[in-house]
Amino acid sequence: PLLFPSSKSKRTFQEIPMRTWFITGASRGFGALITREALAAGDNVVATARDPRGVTDIFGDHPRLLAVAPL
Description:
Elements: E1 2-5, E2 13-16, E3 20-23, H1 29-40, E4 44-48, H2 52-59, E5 65-68
Parallel strand pairs: 3-4, 4-5
Antiparallel strand pairs: 1-2
């Protein structure tokens, strides 16, 4: 989870809940870049691509990544 300063006090922090991203074209280009950044931030990713194996080839068997068939 991400932390950010609370509006109540500058010395306390609140937790930002984990987000889930739905990304199309995740095997290359901007889709791959956004997928990489979202996973690095600790978020979940549902990734689509023409060939879902391309997504797993790039990102491996990541615990927060679900590669699915094209829409």
